[in-house]
Amino acid sequence: MDIFIYVLIGVVALGIGALATIMIQKSLAKSRAKLIVEEAEREAALIKQNKLLEAREEEIKIKSEAEKQAQARLSKVQSIEAKQKQRELQLNQQQSENQRARNENEAVKANLEAQQGVIDARKAELDRLHRKAQDELEHISGLSSEEAKEKLVESLKDEAKTAAASYINDIMDEAKMTANKEAKRIVVQSIQRVATETAIENSVTVFHIDSDEIKGRIIGREGRNIRALEAATGIEIIVDDTPEAIVLSGFDPVRREIARLALHQLVADGRIHPARIEEVVAKVRKQIEEEIIETGKRTAIDLGIHGLHPDLIRLVGKMKYRSSYGQNLLQHSRETANLCAIMASELGLNPKKARRAGLLHDIGKVPDEEPELPHALLGMKLAEKYKEKPEICNAIGAHHDEVEQTTLLAPIVQVCDAISGARPGARREIVEAYIKRLNDLEQLALSYPGVIKTYAIQAGRELRVIVGADKIDDVETEKLSSEIAKRIQDEMTYPGQVKITVIRETRSVSFAK
């Protein structure tokens, strides 16, 4: 029992101790909480004070900015007011000046009106004196004013004609001195482009026969032989009343040559029938093709030109059967090639390239096809196709100014082409057309008054005009030559240029008996 009491007492003591401990801890916790609350209140007060300070600073800053903006606006308004006042002062000053100028103008106007009255009075007096002087002059000279004007106008016309003729002479002399190069270029272009090709020389071949009896054999029964020949050659054969001649008509010179040779063999052999015609035409065509290639090779060898494409050699050979203005195209190309080589050597350029370009410059005139292109451009395209060098191609394409000249070979080929075509005798025209052109030249000059005789000489390249010395003076002689030249240029077609020489001379003839 005592033990139980002791235990109970111990337990109670322990409980009392624990309770006391709890009470102490609770008291400590309250004091800590109080301390934390006090600390938080102090921090909150500090934060509040800082925020108030920041708000005051921001307020001061905004107020300062507002004061600055207000000050700036005030300054701007003051500046505008100052400018406005200055403008008002200027306007007032200008108004006063305008008023002063208006007053001065009115005074000047009044003065001018007074002077105008004086001038009108003086003018009336002058008109009266002028009429009086005019009447006296008419009375003294015996001429009216209109007649005097007419005489004065005639005198001025004569002076103007003399001055104009002198001025024209000065211009012509200056042009001769300064425009020699341009004149040569124009002459070369005229030689190349103005003369018109005559169709009959380029589309007709005349085949001569021994007797008209052969014509019937060529025609054949119901025309079968001539139809077979035309079908085989592609050439129109004209059998008419022309004695001992048959006309072969076609624009392809090679076909015309094939037809001519085939007819020659058929007439010589005597056997003329459709089968034989086809056989002979095929044989002749083969021979002509071989001859074309052989001619091209021989031409290239003669000129020392190597490495030509076989198709270019064939085109060179075809030139043998083509003419231009009556000049054989192959002969023209050979001449041009040799001239180009000589000129290139003199200028220190490559003569081989120049000779090659000169030979090939007209290959565009003999293509197998006929495209719608100038022969210079077509020749350039053919040369490019067959791998010729760019300077050769440009020289071919530029020899008629179809493309821009980019190398020194191009003007050489152009000039040598003109030289070969322009030399006397190189090109011909039909006799009737030639005679008609000379007659037209002479008749044109004879239509002018004062012309006595005219002579077209040097194959129509010069026209000499004889005028009467008593009908035309020296000034009118110079004017006449210019007028005739201009009319010939406007109304006629001619190769190259025509020189007009007007001759005025006085002859005195006496006889000693």
What does this structure look like?
- This protein is mainly alpha-helical.
- 70% of the residues lie in helices and 7% in strands.
- It has helices spanning 2-141, 145-178, 180-193, 199-203, 213-219, 224-233, 253-269, 274-303, 310-318, 329-346, 351-360, 375-385, 390-397, 409-422, 431-446, 474-491; strands at 204-208, 236-238, 245-249, 323-324, 327-328, 451-457, 462-467, 499-504.
- A 3-stranded antiparallel β-sheet has the order 1-3-2. Strands 6-7-8 form a 3-stranded mixed β-sheet, covered by helices on one side. A two-stranded antiparallel sheet has the order 4-5.
- The longest helix has 140 residues, at 2-141.
Percent of residues in helical segments?
over 70%
**Order of strands side by side in the largest beta sheet?**
1-3-2
Question: What is the mean pLDDT?
Answer: 80
Runs in which pLDDT lies below 50 for 5 or more consecutive residues are: 193-201
Give the DSSP E fraction (strand runs of 2 or more residues).
Answer: 5-15%
DSSP strand count: 8
The CA-CA distance between the termini, in Å, is: 218 Å
H/E topology pattern: HHHHEHHEEHHHEEHHHHHHEEHE
- The number of helical runs is 16
Secondary structural class: mainly alpha
